[in-house]
Batch of 2 targets.
Target 1
Amino acid sequence: MTQRCLAHEYGLAKEKRSLGARAIRGQRHPQAAGFAQAELRWPGLRQRYQPRGNAMSGGEQTGQLLASSRELCPREQCERRQQEQEISGGRSRASTPAPEAEAARGGRGSVQPRDVRMCALLSATCPGQPLRTAANARRNEPCSKRYGEGKKRLPLEAESCCSGGFPKLLQIKLISRSRASFRVEHPAGGYKKLFETVEELSSPITAHVAGRIPTWLKGSLLRCGPGLFEVGAEPFYHLFDGQALLHKFDFKEGHVTYHRRFVRTDAYVRAMTEKRIVITEFGTYAYPDPCKNIFSRFFSYFKGVEVTDNALVNVYPIGEDYYACTETNFITRINPETLETIKQVDLCKYVSVNGATAHPHVENDGTVYNIGNCFGKNFSLAYNIIRIPPLQADREDPINKSEVVVQFPCSDRFKPSYVHSFGLTPNYIVFVETPVKINLLKFLSSWSLWGANYMDCFESNETMGVWIHVAEKKKGRLLNIKFRTSAFNLFHHINTYEDNGFLIVDLCTWKGFEFVYNYLYLANLRANWDEVKRQAEKAPQPEARRYVLPLSIDKVPARHHRRGAGPGSAGTCPCAGDESVWLEPEVLFSGPRHAFEFPQINYKKYGGKPYTYSYGLGLNHFVPDRLCKLNVKTRETWVWQEPDSYPSEPIFVSHPDALEEDDGVVLSIVISPGVGPKPAYLLILNAKDMSEVARAEVDINIPVTFHGLFKRA
């Protein structure tokens, strides 16, 4: 029996992409499988290309000219062929403007991928308007009435980019002949500034604003990340080891200020007091005090595990309070106005978890859901979903009312999987159990006896693959369907929602069972560009994926277990003697050594619901060098990127009176060493087209930040 596509069964067939070529010369259907439109915005230069991804083999792509999605009349087809011939022969008049010409127009200079060639500049082809090209200046008769008037165009914007005398020109590009052409190189190594120690500020400093801050944007951007990468002569070794630094950009009446302070965790205070690393971090072991005598040093090894409270990963609200967090059982309450540290909170005292993720789900009423591993039945490990209620009328701290709502079993009795995030909808909880395991026995023994750090206790189960668990949120009952798929690393869920008896789970995955964090040691990230690329070539490769989970076994094509059924499909296969649902993903975004990571959506309105847009940080061989907007329905991608500039996770802020999902702005902290006098700035982009609205520049460097939020005034 032929396996059917689940995407068709639950009504998303319109999202599937036809692989058949259209009648238009050299053009495939705009929604062909694997297509990913992207738009690179450089100063003075816009590029639009459409890599085919899985639709082509060997990474070879045939150049195709894309102007709009409407049918072309014979005259337009003839002109298009003429333009292609001129370009292939190097005779196109619409060449890239010289740097001198760009500078004369006040731009910052133009940079483009090496293998992406310019093609003709076309005037806006709106219905009823004549078509003009730089290759042929004669006036053409309006033909859109007879050929596709009113059909939807690709959202290309008019921008005059050459010295020719053609008004309102559109810059159209050829599809690259090589995927490598989408790669931007960083030989100067400016990304190393992301991993330099900085000092905190005694008071906020005023940022210089270029552009105009939207009047409705009022509040604070709070960000968290490492700011101290060594203590005295002792360095930290891993990206997740540096001591936590809180950042704040404050928006008031069009003005912006910047402030930062270290979180006064136990790890930080003791390190500053003793002038050495005192508590073992993720990838750095804290050795005993060398000033102690040999007996004191020996017995210090047997004190047991001293878990770090270094809250460098994220900030989130609980009730009226805000907490900085890492991935242990400790969270740290902070003052979001002054960035002062208030107190440490141990979640183990309130609920049964050994630790909790830094990516809780916060619902609109203030309810917080999180997940952490714990000891379950028969002394085996399990995963608890904890619920922290919103602030009640009695004003009691909501943490005191924390409770476990459901428990997921562990695939290995003594080796829980590493968990960084999970999925949540109004009715279901989705937990993805990956093959990256924590060896608990090694964690407890080697740590105490001969010294180890967290990274030393991770190992990979090469035969497990990935298990996906689903539970009913309100009833706390596990769904009795075993979902299985091929191995990958997972750190961030994009979104999860329900659709006609199915769960749609969108993930940022890294293919394979090897732990990606093995490649995030600071020595690798601070290396020269060629070495960074060499290390990234060995690492698991990134891919944004969609998995479709049937909520009933009746939705699964019966008694067939062919695994290669195509995008969005699922089937059953014998797995460990049981009938399990095998899932095959649909690719949302894929590029060689290019990741769509740190995803953000319009969470307040579309979290756990059907959505269209996601914003992400583009990683180029682990180096963050672009901001992306992804349409998960059409796979269209917009990209902001500037030379030698390194942004952070994009934070979407919705307009107060928004009518559409992407009506708002995107905020990101960017460092730009060697580009102008200001080393860092807060970037504000139009969330619709990723065009720059404004930037708030500061005179000091800002190190890497991981996650954060926008707190409205």
Note: Confidence is low (pLDDT under 50) at residues 1-71, 87-181, 293-302, 558-577.
Target 2
Amino acid sequence: MYAAYLDELGAPEAIRYGELPDPVPGPTDVLVDVLATTVNPVDTFVRSGKWRTPLSFPFVVSRDLVGVVASASPGAPGFAVGDWVWANSLGHAGRQGAAAQRAVVPAERLYHLPPGVDPTDAVAVAHPAGTAYLGLFTHGRVRAGETVLVAGAAGNVGSAMVAMAVDAGARVITTSSVRDIGYCRSLGAAAAFDYADPLLSSALRAECPQGIDVWLDNAGRNDLSSAVDLMAFRGRIVLLAGLDTRPVLPAGALYLKDGTVTGFTISRANVAELAEAARVINRLLKAGTLRPRTKEAVPLSAMAEAHRRLEQGLLHGKRLVVGTGRFDDEGNRPAMTSSIVDTSPLFELSADIRVDATPEQIYAVVSDLGRSGEWSPECQGGEWITGEPSQVGSVFRGENLRSEDVVGWAPLVRGTWHTESRVIAAEPGRTFRWMMLSYASEDQESVWGFDIRAEAGGSVLTHHFRMGTATAGIHKIVADLSEADRRRFVADWTAKLEQDLADTLKRLKDVIEHQG
């Protein structure tokens, strides 16, 4: 088999690419044909010797893998040849790594991949999401209703933390570079701030007057003075990055608040903790809630360059998916997804525009769905049928009109038809979102929304749409289409949605700036 491995510790150039004997599984191990691996900061620490851990040479690098079971030993019940699986705790404590065409994985460290999940998405999030879960819940003990601050929220671990904390019912505040604020809000952050803002502490205090319950710093700055100052009673600070930092701890202020500071690394998590995290990761992967921001495919032979790029800070949230070539050679990669419409998310788009108005003025318009005929390409307006207008939980019945030339070849509903949607987020001056309901009035993973943020002299309005899994309507449209035409439809509908977002924003800008 081919592998990326070390004969000695050192710089990225110490990583070699070549043939090694196939590994031999033990009585409780599973042999996996590896589709892909990736590279994490801890991989560079182990390679360089910065993090000392037992290993033997030649040492195969990398923690994470996704692949297919080649064989399962008698002591590995629950796994069968052909099963899709993933792992995120190899390459440490005497275990050989994942950067090879075949790898041996202890059964207790291996997890099934849910049907329909893109294997490369899974391997891209496996390690960051595992770290995020441990930080939030194992060590941070986050509970629903608590305020959680995620510093460095746009990175791989940080973005997984935001998604997981929101899913758990926490109120999430983020800090990131200014260019990533919109991305953080798209993950569900209730408020997002520029970490370089000289008035950041004041802004956080105003946003969190009762204090911050859990502070997690993925950026590795570890500003304990600010964290303790902004901490709520019995707050928790969780440290997981910044290996070389030496911050000052204001001990008196910490103990007067009954506060705690905890450090951890995923490498020391036990198998029960990792399995607990894996169950949540699989659920969120299946739901489409957990996904990499961007991916780049590179070959196994480029592992040394992948380490170099990571160490030099050249990736900015991008995950390198390192293909092993195992299935390229054999031409027999098992199918995971029977149709493109099983992809999750099926659609995910956003666009923004600058508007010369305050966030409050913009919110007053975009939250008034009864006026949507003034800006929507298809919705002609409608009425609120339950609840108070524009409030969370209220249901809106919209009247829609679609012309014959919209993706004209596809069997779409045309002319006039009606839809119902339920408001799921309504924060004046910030966010307004609604979920489309099925004809049986059931929730669907089809969410439209607007986010607003103030900018000098005006505001930036972001319009977004996400369909996590195909709705009943989409399934009806593609039911009689060939797979080739299904792919054509998804591509054409994506282009249509992109144009709709852009047209809506332009019309809204005109309506808002010229009203009254």
Note: The chain has a mean pLDDT of 92.
